[in-house]
């Protein structure tokens, strides 16, 4: 069984402070992990056989921490996000958000998928505000929050544009704004930039990292890109082939503020990406 506990967290319950990567928290609330997976297993039955998707997965994610999850296709990465969101119940073990057991779909998370999934007949702003309508949030406050997020993500001037008038990167910015509108403490991202071209993906990595620094939201990101995982995260979870379990947790020894090109040239970046490739046994296959 792979367990993450005091060996990877400070006494305060936060991730290790590496060149300003995370400040210690001293309140009792802050010591409770934002996300806890305890001895998780997921099993399901197909027409042909029983399948174990995840086995003996344990992980604590500190408040405000950015954790990336990488691993072979079919190892259960997306399943982990569904467990945290309450969209799937574990066959064994327990999932908790902020110390509260997850017993069903949660409203206190944000979720960004690979496809932006915007409504074609609604403008960018109205797609963002769909979150407020579904949750019954106060209209004036929601509009003010939407305008703040539009500025934060560089969508100024495109608020009234429709999805077909936006590039793929802009559509994902709208989806990110929608997920953050209600200021969720935990943001789940399932390969959100996988369909973008390389240059746009780099730009989105930079934007996401900046937004994370400004909001201090807890982020769990599933990605097939090792460089993306290391550039963005405080820690990288490396999964084994199915049944998925945690092979190793990689601490990313980089400062909180990371200039993209300079970060990719550092020894720390190359050491982390090299170790992950070694663990996955497919050097260069996940670039």
Automatic annotation (TrEMBL):
Keywords: ATP-binding, Nucleotide-binding, Transport. PANTHER family: ALIPHATIC SULFONATES IMPORT ATP-BINDING PROTEIN SSUB, TAURINE IMPORT ATP-BINDING PROTEIN-RELATED. Residues 1-17 have a biased composition (Polar residues). Residues 1-29 are annotated as: Disordered. This is ABC transporter ATP-binding protein. GO terms for molecular function: ATP binding. The keyword Transport applies. InterPro entries: AAA+_ATPase, ABC_transporter-like_ATP-bd, ABC_transporter-like_CS, ABC_transporter_ATP-bind, P-loop_NTPase. The keyword Zinc-finger does not apply. The gene is ssuB. Gene3D superfamilies: P-loop containing nucleotide triphosphate hydrolases (3.40.50.300). Residues 35-266 form the ABC transporter domain.
């Amino acid at each position: 069984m792979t367990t993450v506990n005091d060996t990877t967290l400070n006494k305060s319950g936060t991730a290790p402070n590496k060149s300003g990567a995370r400040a210690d928290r001293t309140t009792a609330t802050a010591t409770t992990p934002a996300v806890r997976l305890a001895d998780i297993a997921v099993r399901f039955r197909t027409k042909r056989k029983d399948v174990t998707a995840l086995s003996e997965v344990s992980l604590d994610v500190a408040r405000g921490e950015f954790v990336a999850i990488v691993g072979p296709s079919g190892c259960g990465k997306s399943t982990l996000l569904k467990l945290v969101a309450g969209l799937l119940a574990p066959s064994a073990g327990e999932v908790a958000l902020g110390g509260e057991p997850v017993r069903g779909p949660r409203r206190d998370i944000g979720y960004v998928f690979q496809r932006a999934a915007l409504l074609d007949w609604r403008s960018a702003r109205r797609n963002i505000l769909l979150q407020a309508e579904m949750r019954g949030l106060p209209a004036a406050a929601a509009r003010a929050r939407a305008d703040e997020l539009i500025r934060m993500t560089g969508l100024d001037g495109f608020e009234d544009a429709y999805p077909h008038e936006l590039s793929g990167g802009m559509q994902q910015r709208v989806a990110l704004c929608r997920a953050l509108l209600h200021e969720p403490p935990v943001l789940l991202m399932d390969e959100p930039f996988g369909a973008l071209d390389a240059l746009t993906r780099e730009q989105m990595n930079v934007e996401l990292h900046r937004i994370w620094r400004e909001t201090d939201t807890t982020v769990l990101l599933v990605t097939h890109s090792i460089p993306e995982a290391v550039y963005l995260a405080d820690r990288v979870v490396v999964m084994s082939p199915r049944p998925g379990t945690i092979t190793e947790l990689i601490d990313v020894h980089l400062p909180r503020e990371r200039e993209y090109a300079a970060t990719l040239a550092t020894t720390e970046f190359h050491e982390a990406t090299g170790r992950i490739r070694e663990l996955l046994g497919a050097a260069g296959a996940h670039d």
